[in-house]
Amino acid sequence: MEFNVLIGGEGGQGAFSVEMELTEALTRLNYHFFATKHYMSRIRGGHNFHMIRVADHPVHALNGGKWEMVVALDDETEPLHKPDLREGGLFLSRAMTKEIADEGKKRFGEIRSANTALVGCVLAVIGVAPEKIAETAESGKKEGYLKMGYDFAARWNIAGAFPVSAAAGCPVRFDGNQALAFGALLGGCRFVAGYPMTPATSILHYFSEAARELPVHFEQAEDEIAAINMALGASYAGVRSMAATSGGGFALMQEGVSLAGMTETPIVVAVAQRPGPATGLPTRTEQGDLNFILHAGHGEFPRVLFAPGSILETIELARRAFDLADRFQIPVFLLTDQYFADSVQVVEEEDIPLEPGARECPALDAAYKRYRLTEDGISPLTFPGLSDARVKLDSDEHDEEGKITEDPDLRKRMVDKRLGKIERLKTEAVMPTFSGALASAAVILCWGSNRLIAEEAGGRLTAEGIAVSVLHFGQVYPLTAAMVAPYRLEGKKRICVENNATGQFAGLLKRELGLAVDHSVLKYDGDCFTVEELYQTLRSLLA
Amino acid sequence: MEPKIKTGWCPGCGNFAIRDVLEKVFRELPVPRNKIVLTSGIGQAAKMPHYLDVNFFNGLHGRSLPPAVGIKLARPDLTVIAYSGDGCMYGEGGNHFIHTLRRRLDITILVSENRVYALTKGQSSPTTGLAVKNDLTPGGNPNRPLNPLALAVLMGAPFAARGFAGDKEHLAALIREAILFTGTAVVDILQPCVSFNKINTYAWYRERVFKLEKPPSDRYEAIRTAEIWGEKIPIGVIWRDDASPLREIKNIFETPLTREDVASRLNMRCVMMR
Questions:
Q1: What is the mean pLDDT of residues A153-160?
Q2: Which domain-ending residue is among A378, A404, A428?
Q3: CB within 10 Å: which end of chain B, N or C, has fewer?
């Protein structure tokens, strides 16, 4: 049983507040849900819509079918979304939402009471009893607003129209950027610098909030060049650090990435992708920066790219990113996208790791050499001011001590030292996630945020007798033969699903593993895939 | 006498004098040597840390300041000094120069000011005078020079000074005062480039520099002083404001992050759409 609702309105009208309050209430009521949004690059006006899927089982993607309910806060919602209402679905017209607003204004003298009332109304529709609804209120005032919403539902005879039972155990709510910031904190990240850029800004927001209470620091930089250089400075000084941005900002950070590569300074860079080129579609989604990030920064140096596909995987990989960055003294990238960043999902509290990672800070002596040539290419890492060791970091090619050199032999040995890490990194690669049957005739290959959409679409097809498995890569670089060896991909029809126009990941699979895909399913209009859409596309390919 | 060191500088370069001064200041500073971090960018001046016994972060061109900010914020116990040339600090890094001054951190910014791009062999820098002929501006520099100290005082730097590489004793006192000053301190150091600047030579400066007895007590007077350039060039402390409040930095390096800290971040309010 599930219930899909769309709330449409102008920017600044309250649709976002409804989504936020509703997802908070659903979490408190132990519901499984998934929520995402479609919004314009402006502050007020335009037409935004918020989509919430509530179910009695875990859901992690947009259904993409018809809506059980559409709520109109503006005039555009009706022509745009009412046609997608299912038979017997509920349409709360502009007039009806206005009635709620007018009543709220009259009764409470507070226009914003309407947002909370709409939450009460929607909760009533999915069959939440009035006393349970009241329990979700943060204050007596809000309790009154929720009650008013419930009363409207009762009056309109829609209470319990689409009952959904609350089946989650102890859910914790995250949006994608929250999961990333949380995972970074868990990874022992103590310093974040950034410059606001949609859709990465909320990562910075969560860190700036954390910095008010916890021993972490957030610095708003004058530009992205400064941001990554500040983070590198903090890392050099001894704390795990991160820079977070989107593609355009990352373009400015590239020289810093190269600096991290040359100086072997650990750093994590989070890139929440949005459609480019240039300013592109600032508030929409795309996976168009894979090749860019793979090749970002001049010169040759090792790196790792993670592109998590779920909340828990984001937390785990963000934590791992800091550990890897430190142990290998390399830049590690976390790729997400606007869709994932702005989607809210729940995970069970007991599954969330809480033990933070920390950096080791050895005290060495005056004989210390920052770039000592060792067997495994990894030089001991320490930080200034902890001992007699002088920590000398240089963006020029350098000798073991960290001083400028132009010696050809030393240059070659330093390059080999740095690049030699790649083979060791491969032995620690994060294996992809396989779901479905090994014997399936077709496999969906995907990365990043498409994982759970693909898994649900594949599951639907499998249930219909078209066996489709999904292989999702949380680590997109480096790729290793061992990652795909267990899954008998040669014998399967291979379909790569990506949010870009050129099939960048398919190209990478070919380049790195010699693995050709039979079809690329690509979407690059700025929207995410829905389960229904992907299911239909795959069905036409496979049936 | 310091042992002779190999450097990448030209014979007679003003940077030698500054190196000697820094070595002396560091030796006499009431700060353990291992707590000093020098950041620098790229250019002939930016090679400075390589010739001193200190921790250093020799980063990218124009970027001596952002790492200095990151280091200070992560480790307030360290004495952080950024050192680079005028091209690096005021050209490629001009934005960082302006904004670092806003951050109210205890950082010292030393600029080796030779009014020319030397490492790339003689192009105009942000401080090159109007109509001066250089490589790439063979018809004369069409731009007016940037005034770093007037800019620094205007942007609220609580300490701004001008030194001259030709007067080591005076320069040592200035740099020492700047490092010990609590707050962002800028010292612009006139440093003759013997290879590419045939105008602003040692002799040219010696005819013009005069020492300020004490800094002006009024900020606008300080800006006016910073603008004196030509027949007479003031050196010394141009502005010093001991009342300028410093930003508080918490000690993130020594405070452990706990399981409870992490758990406190669960179920935070979503903001998104940013």
A1: 97
A2: A428
A3: N
| A516 in the same domain as A376 | no
What's the pLDDT tens digit per position in A427-479? 999 999 999 999 999 999 999 999 999 999 999 999 999 999 999 999 999 99
**Residue A162: pLDDT band with limits 50, 70, 90:** very high
Same domain, residue pair A340 and A197: yes
Residue that finishes a domain, picked among A124, A155, A186: A155
Note whether A28 contacts B: Cβ–Cβ < 8 A: no
Average of per-residue pLDDT across A404-414: 97
In a domain, A244, yes or no: yes
What domain range is A445 assigned to?
433-542
Question: Cβ contacts of residue B234 below 8 Å, gap of 6+?
Answer: B162, B209, B210, B211, B212, B225, B228
Alpha-carbon gap, residue A53 to A56, rounded angstroms: 10
Chain B residues touching A219 at Cβ < 8 A: 69-70, 73
Helical (H) or strand (E) element with A480: none
pLDDT (mean) for A493-501: 98
The overall pTM is greater than 0.90: yes
Do A106 and A6 fall within a single domain? yes
Residue B4: pLDDT band with limits 50, 70, 90 = low
Does residue A236 sit in the same domain as residue A331?
yes
Query: Does position B273 have pLDDT exceeding 80, yes or no?
Result: no
| A308 and A236 housed in the same domain | yes
CATH for B134? 3.40.50.970
Q: Is the pLDDT of residue A30 over 90?
A: yes
pLDDT band at A543 (very low <50, low <70, confident <90, very high): confident
Q: Mark whether A216 and A322 lie in a shared domain.
A: yes
State ipTM. Answer: 0.97
Cα–Cα dist A303/A324, whole Å: 10
pLDDT digits (tens, 9 = 90+) for A256-274: 999 999 999 999 999 999 9
Q: What is the CATH number of the domain that holds A244?
A: 3.40.50.970
CB within 8 Å: A392 and B55 = yes
pLDDT for res A268: 98
Concatenated DSSP letters for A205-263? HHHHHHHHHSS-EEEE-SSHHHHHHHHHHHHHHTSEEEEEE-HHHHHHHHHHHHHHHHH
The CATH number of the domain holding residue A453 is: 3.40.50.920
Residue B50 to residue A355, Cβ atoms within 8 A:
no
Q: Name the residue range of residue B79's domain.
A: 14-249
Inside any domain, residue B35: yes
pLDDT of residue A41: 87
Residue A165 lies in a domain: no
Asked whether residue A106 carries a pLDDT value surpassing 70, the answer given is yes
CATH number at residue A36: 3.40.920.10
Q: Is the pLDDT of residue A171 over 60?
A: yes
- Number of independent structural domains in chain A: 4
How many other CB atoms are found less than 10 A from the CB of residue B4? Answer: 6
Put simply, the answer to whether B70 touches A173 (Cβ < 8 Å) is no
Same domain assignment for residues A129 and A228: no
| Of residues B43, B93, B31, B34, the one with CA closest to residue B68 | B93
CA–CA dist B63, A229 (Å, integer): 7
Write out residues 293-352 of A within 8 Å (CB-CB) of B: 341-342, 344, 349, 352
Residue A234: CB partners within 8 Å, gap ≥ 6?
Answer: A190, A191, A193, A217, A241, B70, B71, B73, B74
Q: Using one digit for the tens of pLDDT, what is the confidence trace for A221-240?
A: 999 999 999 999 999 999 99
Residue B267: its pLDDT value, please?
86
Task: Please judge whether B78 and A283 are an interchain contact, meaning their C-beta atoms are less than 8 angstroms apart.
Answer: no
Q: Which of residues 248-287 of A touch B (CB under 8 A)?
A: 255-256, 259, 263, 283
Helix (H, G, I), strand (E, B) or coil at A177: helix
User: Structural domain tally of chain B?
Assistant: 1
Residues A117 and A10 in one domain: yes
